[in-house]
Amino acid sequence: MLLRRSVLISALAVLAAFALTTTAFAATIYEGNATVSGGELTLSSNTGDADSGNDFGVATFDVSSGTTFAELMDLSTDYHVTNDGCMGGSPRFQIKVDTGSGFKNIFAYLGPEPNYNTCALDTWTASGDVLTSGRAIDTSQVGGTFYDTYENAVEDYGSYPVVSVSLVVDAGWASGDGEQTVRFDNVEIDDITHDFTPEPPAPTVPTDKDQCKKGGWQTFTNPSFKNQGQCVSYVQHNR
C-alpha cells in the first residue's frame, strides 16, 4: 500500500530565482536538496541529512496569475529514478491552490498507477500529461480522496486558483538506506517547457550593432559607451 506524507513542505532555503520564458532555465524557487547541472534538475531526499534540510528536494514553478486548477494544462516531465525507486508518494507534482480559507495541495504522483511505486530504475521515463481524463489525482488535502479522478477533481475544485506547481522528492524515509534521488528534465506546465539549460553568458563587448540598440549600449562597461552611436561605431571598427 502506498505510504504518503501529507504535510505541506515549508520553504527552508531559496537558492535561486529566474524568470519564465517559452523554454526556461530551472524553477522559481529551490528548496532542500535540489541541484541543477548538465541541463537537468536533481532532487534528493536523504534522511541522514535531515538537520541540514536535505531530507527533501523541491523545485517550485510559477503559474500565470489567475490560473485555476481547471485551467491548468499540460503538466508533464521526463524523470529518471536513480536511487531506490518510487515510494511514499514521491516523486510527485504538488499543485498548491487557494481554497479561500488557506493554501492546500492537490497531488499528481509519478510512476505507474495505481500504487505509483514501481518506477523503472536508471531509465528516463516520460510521464505524459498527469492532468488527463481517467487519471487518479490525490485531492485528500482539499477535502477529496486519495484516488479521486481528474474529472471529479475539476468538478469539485476546478475554481481554486493555482498558486504554484512544484516537483517534490521527499521519501528517503521509506527506503532501506534512507535515500531517494530523482532527475528531471523537460518539465512542461501550461505549454511552458523548463529544460534547465542555462542562459548563455552575456557578451562582454558588442559584436553586432543590434546589441547596441534599445539601450543595449548601456550594458557594456569595458569598454563603456556614451550613446548608441558610439557603440555601433565600435562594432563597425572591430569586426
Structure characteristics:
disordered N terminus, elongated, 14 strands, mainly beta, 2 helices, single chain, 239 residues, 2 domains
Explain the overall architecture.
- There is one protein chain.
- The protein is mainly beta and 239 residues long.
- The chain has two domains: 23-194, Jelly Rolls, CATH 2.60.120; 204-239, no CATH class.
- 8% of the residues lie in helices and 31% in strands.
- The chain is built from two helices and 14 strands.
- Strands 1, 3, 4, 6, 9, 13 and 14 form a seven-stranded mixed β-sheet that branches.
- A hairpin with a 4-residue loop joins strand 7 (92-98) and strand 8.
- It is elongated.
- The relative contact order is 0.21.
